[in-house]
Amino acid sequence: MEFGTIEREIYVEASPEVVFEVVSSPDHLKRWWPDDARYEPAPGATGEIVFGDPDADGAVVAFTVVDARPPRTFSFRWTHPAGEAAAEGNSLLVTFELTPSGGGTLLKMTESGFREMGWEVAVLEQQYREHVAGWDFYLPRLVPYAATLQVRS
Amino acid sequence: MSAALAEKVDDDLWSAIGDPTRRRMLDLLLVEGEGTATTLSRHLPVTRQAVTKHLGVLDRVGLVRATPAGREKRYQVDETQLARAVAQLASVGSAWDARLQRIKRIAEAIQRTKQD
């Protein structure tokens, strides 16, 4: 049994340059994941992502860019304790790998570190799920062609 | 079970699994089928007393079940509860599925804007 890694692959009908922008820039990140994102998409840059209202029961989570090589690789660590440098053992590592394929991009995502971080992320995910319903509302306002999009989590 | 209680149990379950020594113990119990604090401590860099303590944590969240065996207790993994823990990790996976779908839709919408 391996609690270690989640791996996913998805084909996107968009160029690697566009997909890279969507997975790496904080402005895009907050359209598909947290409610807010503050970081420079450059290797070593530290920042944070925010779920919900931090003054209520939301959470501010540390976020450190590990690698950013447009348009092929973007990776970051998250969930390390605030003020601590992100490293193996104190955070989850998310890596996006982009491969040109046909007219689009094969996007591969891996998230590892669960052997150490399992339950903490479960708590975060729970908070996240509470916001998932909100995506059905947000996304149509953010993306053109919204009327034709079927947003389902 | 109330929602609040279910949450508490889940938190404890993840905490129980969050410790590397306890995960190693679960691995050992799965491989061996069963074990006591004494047999487990032979494979681990911790004392029998520490193993007993860890077994107590695993027992409280239902990941192992104990049967008396002389002066000790013999432990087995509770497959149902373990499957539940694994399913929770799977739900982390499905959260990523949802995110990737959103990434796809956003990127494809941008691409279409560029082509128009």
From TrEMBL, chain A:
At the top level, the lineage of the source is Bacteria
Which stretches make up the Activator of Hsp90 ATPase homologue 1/2-like C-terminal domain? 14-144
Query: To which protein family does this belong?
Result: Belongs to the AHA1 family.
Supply the name of the protein.
Activator of HSP90 ATPase
Q: Which organism is it from?
A: Planobispora longispora
TrEMBL record, chain B:
Q: Which Pfam families match?
A: HTH_20
One GO MF term on file is: DNA-binding transcription factor activity
All residue ranges annotated as the HTH arsR-type domain in the record: 2-97
For this protein, the record's PROSITE patterns field holds: HTH_ARSR_2 (PS50987)
Q: What NCBIfam families does its record include?
A: HTH_metalloreg (NF033788)
**PANTHER family, alphabetized:** TRANSCRIPTIONAL REGULATORY PROTEIN
Protein name as catalogued: Transcriptional regulator
Write down the species: Planobispora longispora
